[in-house]
Amino acid sequence: MSGAPRRVRVTSPQTRIALSRRHRPAQHLLPLPVPGSEGDEELAAARALFHRQRRLAARTLGALGLLLFGLSGLLGGLTVLGRVTAWGFPVSWLLLMGASYPLLLVIAVLHVRAAERIERE
Amino acid sequence: MLDRMRRERPDEAKTARVLTVVQKIDADLQDGLGGRGAASAARRLRRLLGAETVVLAGLDGPPVAVAGPGPQEEELAGLLAQAYEQATTAHRPPWTAVPLIVAGELSGALAVRGGADAELSAVAALVARSLDHAALRRARSRIAQADLRTLRAQISPHFLHNALAVIGARIRTDPDRARTLLNDFADYLRYSFSTQGDYATVADELQAVQTYLELQRARFDDRMELTVRMAPEVLPVAIPFLVIQPIVENAVRHGLEPKPGPGSISVSGFGEGPLCVIEVEDDGVGMDPAFARAVLAGERPRKAGAAPDGGRNGVGLANVDQRLRTVYGSEYGLVIETAPGSGTKVVVRVPRFMRGVVAN
Amino acid sequence: MTGLLAIGLLFAASMAIGVYGVRATRLTTPDFLVASRRVAPGWNAMAIAGEYVSAASVLGLAGLMLKNGIGSLWYAVGFTAGYVAVAALVAGPMRRSGAYTVPDFADYRLGSQTIRKLCAVIVLVIMWLYLVPQFKGAGVVLHLVSGTPYWVGVVLAGSVVTASIAAGGMRSATYVQGFHYVVKLLFIAVPAIFLIVHAGDDARQEALRMDVSEWSRPLLDLEGSGQPLLATWSVLLATTLGAVGLPHVIMRFHTSATAAVARRVAVGVIVLLGVFYLFPAVYGLLGRVFTPGLVRGGDTDTVTVVLPGEIVPGGWGSVLTAIVAAGAFAAFLSTSSGLLMALAGGLSHDLSRASVPRLRLAVAAGALVAVLLSLPARSVDINVAVGWAFAVAASTFCPLLVLGIWWRGLTRAGATAGLAVGVLAATGAALASVLTDPGPGWLVVLLAQPAAWTVPLAFMVMIVVSLLGRPPEWAERAVLRLHAPGPAAAE
Q1: What is the pLDDT of residue B2?
Q2: CA C141, CA C150: separation in Å to the nearest integer?
Q3: Which CATH superfamily is domain C2-379 in?
Q4: Residues of A in contact with C80 (CB under 8 A)
Q5: How many CB atoms lie within 10 A of CB A78?
Q6: What is the ipTM of this complex?
């Protein structure tokens, strides 16, 4: 590169003016996406798929709520769990620290597998 | 004399008010008679005319918008039928209906109860013009989209010929390489001829660049080096179809081909907040900045010394630049950094998300 | 001094990765793209976890545990559970929309520039609420390892992050954040195991001692309300649903090649977070035995950094301290650069009308405000402030995304009303809890962690106002497209 002239920045005149302008106009030249033109049959299929996915998501959310609120309710209600120990740990601590994460993972994995199955069909 | 002029001059505030209302009616009707603003336009018209009721009607079906106490259905239907048949103002006191003629074609009517005739025809003309304006606006965006499709980069005959010649030359000496090259060529053709959608992901674009360069490298006997540096987060970004490949092609043909000895090209992409930046840099012969400016300004490149092989030089870049500006707006056009003998860097900087820009 | 050195090395490494670390590949190996697509999901999950595991997790969690008891671990459970909700509700559809940020999604789904701007304002609120505890953490850690005053640490941290972004340190955010996840995990986990081994049998027994004190109760409480179950549930609601609406995390899913990959990435994040969250608990448990003095001093957020020196005196102790401090600094650096990028994106792209987004300027401005807000915030618990950021996200963007994705009836008016009510209610409650003290009872919980009522309220407002209006005809197609498996989904 030694001795070669320095590079110069070049743009189209429109771009140059647009870049030096303080404000950009909020206009958009291209048409916004028009609703798809698929037939009624495809629309019905898409609706059915959507409803299945929604039911699945609701189920997963229910399971998640049950786990979180159920586990905390259980630990709050059954104080006896704190007096029992397993491997040196109080059982209530073990449930809080150890049991919740694998269960969360199970719920998520089951959801993803079911969602992918629905998409494949 | 002076006194008379002052009297003829209408009240300024009133003029301003009327003009504002007219503008607002125009804005209300920007989606046509069936758009969201029709009801609001009818209300404004009623206030403007001081009428009891204003009805905007299409050619059939129930009226699009009614402002004020509603009319009897049969009464209105008869009135509209009369106005449509005669294509002139129809009177059935207390109602008056004026047909709306948009671009020479009957497309609806404005019906009013209790309003002055003279005002009415002027207002109907105004509404018709707004509707015409709306239709033109829609047409303009359709044209922009059509333009985008015509501008879609076309495969250059130069490259086609060279690629086939290279493959042909290897069929005997190195049949394996010839077969891979032919596969690459088929991939490339399929991609550049694919008609689905106007947009592709950066990853797809890079794939096209890669197959293109494989073919070019065979021609250059591998004295060309390519480096790709891509942050994974820009790979799925949607961009207009065939934007990167023409830039790379330009770098090869006008940067590296005229240059003696080995050359290198680097393609890099990274995120810059909400923007995605793609840079194509070569260490070839570079361009005269004035020439680059002329190309981007859309002027026909002169066959001056700056353009060693003349002709199509830079046409690909101008095309890419124009498409980027059409899709994203003027501020997102190409940026070229170059000087004779210093290589060239072309920068594409576009938003990661733009409403309507979706790959396939 | 070792601490400063470790932090300096870490900073240099992440800068190098950020600017140059994008994998350089010669095209002679033809399948660069195939390779990078295969690698990307793993990096993507690590990047999300890296950006998400903040000072709240590295410092705040152990600190809060030391102060308030074992129940504080519910924060960690909520932080992780959020990704179950993300995988189930948001990740895939958000990817299909093509939207990079939440304002982008509002634009896609509702087609309104006004809502886009409103969303950008809410992004700023959440990001600043989230940045303050990060800067506080940096100030505290720097104070510990080098003795500089708190404000110096905060200002320094602000300048470091701003400079690193301005120099291109976030150009390849995926690699930087992924690297930071590994650093955080190793720099917290290895010393933790070392400390467990060195603490001795007695201390280990002592750490696991269950007694009748509130400390051992497996529920958390807020400001001594005496309503532990309500407090726990409100925190769980905020953290779980807040993760769905955190703007800086949502945008990382844009990196996934397809919607199916995005969902799997969310599952990967659950694994990474679950592994990580095992270790802050170690510091909390041991801290209860070795550093009970911190509770009286009020500086519980420092326990992670102080503990190694208490257990292992001498040279090894200071090495461990340096490692942990570097881990904490990594947490600060990755989260706050992610936050600042999201903030600056909103500021420069959505709110400013300048023709070119002035990203660097926006980063500097955002950091400046965050530093100014952090200076008086030394006494605020890291986790409590982060909890507010989650509460705001849960009561604004969570309803917007969930309803926008799963209900075609959402209208512009509904979204606007719900967002406005959500952000005002959540920030108002947080403000009220700082300014007033209503005494024990349920009211203090509902102010300190308002998610329990602001989230349902925001959902209700969005739904009711939407039902009053009529969604545009294209709304249904816009929703259906979010769930349509494209040709690429089969991969």
Answers
A1: 55
A2: 9
A3: Sodium/glucose cotransporter (1.20.1730.10)
A4: 100-101, 104
A5: 14
A6: 0.85
